Amino acid sequence: MTRPAPYPAVTAPPEPAPRHPEPDLRHHGDAEVRGADGPLTGLTDLAVNVRTGTPPAWLKARIAASLDGLAAYPDGRAARRAVAARHRLPVGRVLLTAGAAEAFVLIARAVRARRPVVVHPQFTEPEAALRDAGHDVGRVLLTEADGFRLDPAAVPADADLVVVGNPTNPTSVLHPAAVLERLARPGRTLVVDEAFMDAVAGERESLAGRVGGLPGLIVLRSLTKTWGLAGLRIGYVLAAEDTLAALERAQPLWPVSTPALAAAEACCEPAALAEAATAAEEIAGDRAHLLARLGEFAALRAVGPAAGPFVLVRLPGAAAVRAALRARGFAVRRGDTFPGLGPDWLRLAVRDRATTDRLVAALADVLAERPPG
User: Fold this and answer.
1) Alpha carbon of 292 to those of 7, 24, 148, 299: distances in Å?
2) Are 56 and 223 contacting, i.e. CB atoms less than 8 angstroms apart?
3) Which end of the chain has the lower number of beta carbons within 10 A, N or C?
4) Whole-number Å distance between alpha carbons of 249 and 131
5) 220 close to 100: Cβ distance less than 8 angstroms
């Protein structure tokens, strides 16, 4: 099937003609640490937002113990109950998926929409999935001048499917829940991607508890970032029962493996939630250190206040800087593949303070070597 042309961008005021080529929506951070023959060695990974030192030993043990049950077909009932209890929701409002990426595909296939709109810059997979399913996709482009903050009035009134991230990848902006609630209305599906919400201290501004009460709300969660399970593929959807039924009909049989189900159940237990909360506090401290050190460079601007385990920075000549950092052993995420950004943007994962200090030293060397002007 021929992929349809993108729907004209929607902004307030209208977006000027694009100055850069159409972004590669299929480019993701893991490409920064892979070569032609597989993962590259010797690189400090600041391009992928998976928490370092994960998965923890106790989680590996739970996953390993599940391998004895591989002869049986996966049974997700216990994991669904665990997720439901974690969010204090009925079990019928939980659907387990092979990562949040599968959820975007299910939504694109199962939710009827005449005018879907994606709020950018954000994770590009929702738009890619919608396009692949044959949708014309509109864009609402948030701007640096407004701190990449969302004004609900910028979303077209007739948009019947709206996708927004919170906290948003790559901007690290945390939109107030009250602002997002203003996007909900009868006849509209509102998809809020909360893949990084468990890395936010207190999970403030989450809409997970409003599922079933706010019209058309779908909340997506991922367990791969905080727990280091990107290779296992596990996430879930929270939505009203009729919406989940439609999504489930679009799923293949047994979409989530037994080890992934074991991980989902384990990560929703009280001890795991306490560990995640502690990790979120540590990330906040490490992020503050990263932002303070980046503030030492007059040529660099970091988007703030940041709330996720990553920060977005604007730096003239960022493509050359990224290549020079790579030569010095640091992989950072290019920003020009996100609609609304361009070649002067980079995303940096939050790491421990020693790693940040090493990055800053390398960045200082790179910038010192650039010709003036």
Assistant:
1) 40, 31, 20, 14
2) no
3) C
4) 20
5) yes
| Residues 84-93: contacts with CB under 8 Å, at least 24 apart | 85/268, 86/268, 86/273, 87/208, 87/209, 87/211, 87/238, 88/209, 89/208, 89/209, 89/211, 89/212, 89/238, 90/212, 90/241, 92/241, 92/244, 93/211, 93/212, 93/238, 93/239, 93/240, 93/241, 93/244
Closest CA relative to residue 123, chosen from 183, 182, 44, 192: 192
Mean pLDDT of 4-33: 60
Q: Are 144 and 117 in contact (CB under 8 A)?
A: no
Token couple for 74: 């996966």
CA distance 108 to 68: 35
Backbone angles phi, psi at 337, to 5 degrees: -90, 0
Q: Where are the alpha helices (DSSP H) in 133-257?
A: 177-181, 224-227, 241-250
d(CA 319, CA 113): 37
Take residue 213 and report the two structure tokens written for it: 């009460």
The model's pLDDT over 191-245, given as tens digits with 9 standing for 90+, comes to 999 999 999 999 999 999 999 999 999 999 999 999 999 999 999 999 999 999 9
Nearest-angstrom CA–CA distance, 38 and 221: 28
pLDDT of residue 42: 86
Residues 6+ apart with CB under 8 A from 277: 201, 202
Rounded CA-CA distance 5/134 in Å is 10
3-state helix, strand, coil in the chain (%, to 5): 40, 15, 45
CB contact at 8 A, 191 and 218: yes
Q: Are 155 and 169 in contact (CB under 8 A)?
A: no
Peptide bond just before 170 cis, omega within 30 deg: yes
Token representation of residue 80: 């669904």
| DSSP bridge partners of 238 | 94, 219
